[in-house]
Design brief:
The chain has 305 residues and is mainly alpha-helical. Among the domains are: 129-182; 227-303, Fusion Protein Consisting Of Minor Coat Protein, Glycine Rich Linker, Tola, And A His Tag, Chain: A, Domain 2, CATH 3.30.1150.10. Helix content is 73%, strand content 7%. It contains four helices and three strands; from the N terminus they run ααββααβ. The chain has helices at 2-28, 53-229, 266-279, 288-293, and strands at 242-248, 254-261, 298-303. A three-stranded antiparallel β-sheet has the order 2-1-3, with helices on one face. Helix 1 (2-28) packs across helix 2. The model is unreliable at 31-49 (pLDDT under 50).
Length: 305
Amino acid sequence: MYLSWWIRIRSIWYSLALHIIAAALLVFSFSFTEPIKPSHLDVSIVNAVTVDKAQVDKELQRLKQEEEKRKLEEKQRVEELQKQTEAEKKKAEDLKKQRLEEEKKLLEAQKKKEQEQKLREEEQKKLALLEKEKQELEKQKKLEEEKKAQAEAERKKAEEEKKKAEEERKLQEKLAEEKRQQEEEEKKRLEAEKALQAQLDAEAIEAQKQQDQSLMDRINTAIYNKIVRNFNKTGLPENLTCTLRVRLLPSGDVVSVNLIKSSGNEIFDRRAQNAVEKASPLPVPEDTETFERIGYREITFPFKP
């Protein structure tokens, strides 16, 4: 279709070119007249050259023949091209048909191969199933024989165990009686030991309390004396007392000093707190366990220098 349009357009251009050439021949075949002379001069004979119509027709005929020849050649080329296209189309169709035939044969061969493979697999499955059934039957037979043998063995074993259990029961009864007597004796002994241990613990606790109290008295005195040594009494009234709460580390270092109850004199209270901080570290038990047990992590005391 595209080629047909191209041929039409080209034919229109050729036709237009022929008309332009013909018009040009007609125009340039005339000779222009000479200029008009003045009236007082002699009049010359005007020579005119006429167009040779035969020559124009001949030229047009030649152009027409060439156009017809060109159209004929173009038509031949188109026909040749169409023949070539048809041949190639036929060749392509033949190749396509051949390819489809080959694909069909390959598909049939593949299908046949798959069917044969499927039949082989089904046959193998059947054989495997038969073999499995055979093994199951043999296994079942073997299990039944084993069950019978096991049942007989269990029966004998049960009889032996029953006899042994009876003997064991009698022995256990004898041992239980002996154990009961031993437990009663052990219970009495444990109760006596427990009472003795309770008495010893109470005595130890009381002794520890007395030791701790004695230690606390000595430490409290030492702490108080060290704080007093760092207290400035200058310019303060007599008989003032404030209550302080001091948090300590096991090393005796003062972490914080808080005023719990004021003396009523701000200077006295502030100097008391400063005295505690200056006295750091305070004399506390060197043993951390003792430090924690008697409660020196935080102490509260009235300060009256």
